TrEMBL record:
Localization terms from the record: Cytoplasm
Record protein name field: Beta-ketoacyl-[acyl-carrier-protein] synthase III
Provenance organism: Catenulispora pinistramenti
Reactions catalysed, as given in the entry: malonyl-[ACP] + acetyl-CoA + H(+) = 3-oxobutanoyl-[ACP] + CO2 + CoA
Chief location category: cytoplasm
Domain remark text: The last Arg residue of the ACP-binding site is essential for the weak association between ACP/AcpP and FabH.
Gene transcribed to yield this protein: fabH
């Protein structure tokens, strides 16, 4: 029988340093109203000094494993754009912090699409029979790569982590994850990027230009392409699974910008009331945003077994991807 992937547990974690818009407005040319009007964000969380991406990831992972009732998993897949170090990967560090000795662990880098890519990778491990359980984590300390003087990016992003435990199964039913639709377009790499620090810049023989060590984004073009690619990808995966837009109970897409969420729902024909949106409270947490939004909705008791979730994301690369999830009968915390 064909092996499938099922959601067995979920968890998330936010650092304790809450940063309201007013705190950012006090040190840059912006205001609370300007930020809320353009992004829908009221606050975000930044990791405290000394706190790393692996710290956030390990906490979210531990909560997901507790939710699944597991002390061990077969593999760890971490989606992040802000690893603890350029080398080695951060996932083995997370596995070590969770006490998972000898567990295979590796990173996936697809920026804001990272968690969807990591889910697809985990489903592949399960389908091939490599392991029976996978801990999939999205974790970011985006505050470490933001230019504090750039209001176009510094007001949008926050830190956090979200995680899911997937287990193997042989039926569709509640808890089933997939199929997937994934894509990329490397010609758009300059739209969402950190230019300095990689082999390209180092091998150029030139010192980084001022600001190149920070994250940058062409906001207007990213908005247009995000809606376009997420809509196409979402429609493709709905076609694969045989759902119509009206069959979707919850749209759980990457929390990039509130206007993007609303626009995407409108394009897909999904009522705004079915959109999961936590960006006002946590900002854009990149690869962590989808599991974080889903876990917070779960903690609030918004799901029932059998609910149909459509997940979609767009990020640097350019990358995009979508999948579906039928909510399982998880024991509520």
């Amino acid at each position: 029988m064909t092996r499938s992937a099922h959601l067995a547990g979920i968890g998330s974690f936010l650092p304790s340093c809450r940063v309201p818009n007013a705190q950012l407005a006090a040190r840059m040319d912006t205001s609370d109203e300007w930020i809320r009007t353009r992004t829908g964000i009221r606050q975000r969380y930044f990791a405290e000094p000394g706190t790393t991406t692996s710290d956030l990831a390990a906490e979210a992972g531990a909560r997901a494993m507790k939710s699944a009732g597991l002390a061990e998993v077969g593999a760890v897949v971490l989606a992040t754009t802000t690893p603890d170090r350029p080398c080695p990967a951060t996932a083995p560090v997370v596995a070590a912090k969770l006490g998972l000795a000898g567990c295979p662990a590796f990173d996936v880098q697809a920026v804001c699409t990272g968690f969807v890519y990591a889910l697809a990778t985990a489903c592949g491990l399960l389908a091939m029979g490599c392991v029976d359980t996978v801990l999939v984590i999205g974790a970011e300390t985006f505050s470490t790569i933001l230019n504090p003087a750039d209001r176009a990016t510094s007001v949008i992003f926050g830190d956090g982590a979200g995680a899911m435990v997937l287990r193997s199964g042989h039926t569709a039913g509640n808890g089933a994850v997939g199929p997937f639709d994934l894509g990329s377009d490397g010609t758009g790499r300059d739209l969402i990027t950190v230019r300095a620090g990689g082999a390209e810049q180092r091998r150029s023989g030139l010192a980084p230009a001022p600001g190149d060590e920070y994250f940058s984004m062409a906001g207007r073009e990213v908005f247009r392409q995000a809606v376009e690619h997420m809509a196409q990808s979402a429609r493709a995966v709905l076609g694969h699974v045989g759902w119509q837009a009206g069959d979707v109970d919850w749209l759980a897409c990457h929390q990039a910008n509130l206007r993007i969420l609303v626009r995407l729902a409108d394009v897909l024909g999904i009522p705004e009331a079915r959109v999961l949106a936590n960006i006002a409270e946590v900002g854009n947490t990149s690869a962590a945003s989808i599991p974080l939004a889903i876990d917070q909705a779960y903690q609030a008791g918004r799901f029932k077994a059998g609910d149909r979730l459509l997940l979609s994301a767009f990020g640097g690369g350019l990358t995009w991807g979508s999948t579906v999830l039928t909510w399982p009968d998880l024991t509520h915390p």
